[in-house]
Specification:
The structure holds two protein chains of two kinds. By secondary structure, chain A is mostly beta strands. In chain A, about 0% of the residues lie in helices and about 55% in strands. In chain A, strands 2, 4, 5, 9, 10 and 11 form a six-stranded mixed sheet that branches. Chain A has a five-stranded antiparallel sheet with strand order 1-3-8-7-6, with no helix packed on it. The termini of chain A are far apart. Chain B is built from no helices and eleven strands. By secondary structure, chain B is mainly beta. The chains are: A mainly beta, B mainly beta. At the A-B interface, β4, β5 and β9 of A face β5 and β10 of B.
């Protein structure tokens, strides 16, 4: 059974703090890892598509790294802002066309 | 482009009724995905199409669920007969490339409640 885990489940940070969270996935049959940002009552918004071991992607204050050999990806947010409050989902895609979403990390940024 | 369009946005129906959800992907996208989101199971891929052809429907929960894509700009997800446990948010997404290779753009979702 393929399992994708995210930690922590939720966190609360002060505005201006930097934070990071983890997505863990099977290290075999890797094809790609996606990160999504999902605000309440909206639809998931794609952040990053990561396909190569060692990939580092950046979009503004948000960045992500990928380690396919050990099966994890980190998402970093530098200088958190209230508008960063959302659930951050990772999705693991296998080489045989399966996609499994993690349960998400719920981030609340306190002004 | 208006993005992925889904209708209806909300649907309330009674157990046993047929439910049809609709999706219009972004023009030019060759892949279309149907997802279901529940509190218990999170976000799950139900089925996806490439160039209007179903590629993988192994995520479809049971025979009551069916999906079609008669042309490049329209897809339906049908539940017949519907049951209370089908209550969920159903998302449609589309992309240029298949799973993994490219960003998927999600529609706003259809919130289904089966009484």
């Amino acid at each position: 059974i393929l399992n994708v885990e995210q930690s922590p489940q939720s966190l609360h940070v002060q505005e201006g703090d930097s934070t990071n969270f983890t997505c863990s996935f099977p290290s075999s049959n890797f094809y790609a890892l996606h990160w999504y940002r999902w605000e309440t009552a909206k639809s998931p918004e794609a952040l990053f598509v990561m396909t190569l071991n060692g990939d580092e992607k950046k979009k503004g204050r948000i960045s992500a790294t990928l380690n396919t050999k050990e099966g994890y990806s980190y998402l970093y947010i530098k200088g958190s802002q209230p508008e960063d409050s959302a659930t951050y989902l990772c999705a693991f895609m296998t080489s045989y066309d399966k996609v499994i979403f993690g349960p998400g990390t719920s981030l609340s940024v306190i002004p | 482009d208006a993005g992925v369009i889904q209708s209806p946005r909300h649907e309330v129906t009674e157990m046993g009724q047929e439910v049809t959800l609709r999706c219009k992907p972004i023009s030019g996208h060759d892949y279309l995905f149907w997802y279901r989101q529940t509190m218990m199971r999170g976000l799950e891929l139900l089925i996806y199409f490439n160039n209007n052809v179903p590629i993988d429907d192994s995520g479809m929960p049971e025979d009551r669920f069916s999906a079609k894509m008669p042309n490049a700009s329209f897809s339906t997800l049908k539940i017949q007969p519907s049951e209370p446990r089908d209550s969920a948010v159903y998302f449609c997404a589309s992309s240029w490339l298949g799973l993994g290779g490219e960003t998927q753009y999600f529609g706003p979702g259809t919130r289904l409640l089966v009484l």
